[in-house]
Specification:
mainly alpha; about 180 residues; about 0% strand; homodimer; DNA-binding; Tetracycline Repressor, domain 2
Chain lengths: ~180, ~180
DNA sequence: GTCTATAGGAAGATAGAC
DNA sequence: GTCTATCTTCCTATAGAC
């Protein structure tokens, strides 16, 4: 994949984080990337192709993002609930990806793969810190909770601080210090 | 609100559950409702107004849906994870509502209100069955988890059975039998 | 590979009759 | 209140030059 393509996809993630998948206009993306619309079609064929590649790209970014063997579990989960540009963009795009996959068969498999990877990473961290805990179940519950809380935060139903408190509470329950 | 309006809004919920908010076409909705597009504009002004009213309607439906003083807590939560037409339509529409609200200020307040109502109902059920539990925290965590699991289920990242198992596990942890 | 210019079509919205 | 017919706008996509 060329640098140009990467930069277009990065721009697409930003636009999606701002306007949602439904709000992504090819012309707007062209402006964001500083190129013409024709070039986007040259590289990605059509809007659907662009979208597919963008959402795969979000997956890749998410994978990079979480790479953190050795980092504290608390941090690993709580870092998904932070008011920084990077987290906001990623979480918003990720939420859009999941919401889009509900109506788009093509996206389901890559989405499920990414979810699996993320859950596995959290499960590993759990195993390191709490060898006796049922790591897979706990990881699956905590990550699903993070997604639920994140969506509530981004949609304005809950404050970030409250979301973080609730997550901390869940971690304490799932992984009591022995 | 007239019966006609209600029937249009019901049709809109069905269409949204099938195609998502982004997929809702006024013409398609007209077909679903068995009327002309002009009539939709007569009743709701424009697409945005239609959408706003529809999403409020989803809120109302969700409120009705949960009305169940006296029902077991387990049932109350687990009934959100069921493969019936009604649950699927409601959950899908609800997910779309939340995803849309991320990019639509106007929807946030009604969405937050509905969320509050739902959480409060669950909290009441908790208080009845487990007087000593921190009902509000538990209710907020369990409902957020339901939303996260529901979205994973609808987007094909998890089976329904697995989602139900995980939820049961969380309930057991949050509300241990004394 | 990249642009400008534009074709073509889909979807939102309205006019006007009944 | 409701319809048919149509306008208009917006957006995807392509043609063709560089």
């Amino acid at each position: 994949m060329s640098e140009r393509q990467k930069s277009i996809l990065d721009a697409a993630v930003r636009v999606i984080a701002r306007t949602g998948v439904r709000g992504l206009r090819v012309e707007q993306l062209a402006a964001e990337a500083g190129i013409s619309t024709a070039l986007i079609y040259y590289h990605f064929g059509d809007r659907a192709g662009l979208l597919r590649r963008t959402l795969e790209h979000i997956n890749d970014r998410a994978a990079d993002y979480t790479q953190s063997t050795g980092v504290e579990l608390d941090l690993l989960l709580l870092q998904e609930l932070q008011d920084t540009e990077a987290v906001r963009v990623n979480s918003t795009a990720w939420g859009e990806l999941r919401a889009t996959a509900v109506f788009n068969e093509e996206l389901r498999e890559p989405l499920a793969d990414s979810t699996r990877v993320w859950v596995a990473e959290i499960a590993d961290a759990i195993r390191r810190a709490h060898p006796d805990a049922p790591a897979t179940d706990v990881a699956e519950r905590l990550t699903a909770l993070v997604e639920g809380l994140s969506e509530r935060w981004l949609s304005g139903s809950i404050t970030l601080d409250r979301a973080r408190d609730l997550l901390r509470g869940a971690i304490a329950l799932e992984l009591p210090d022995r």
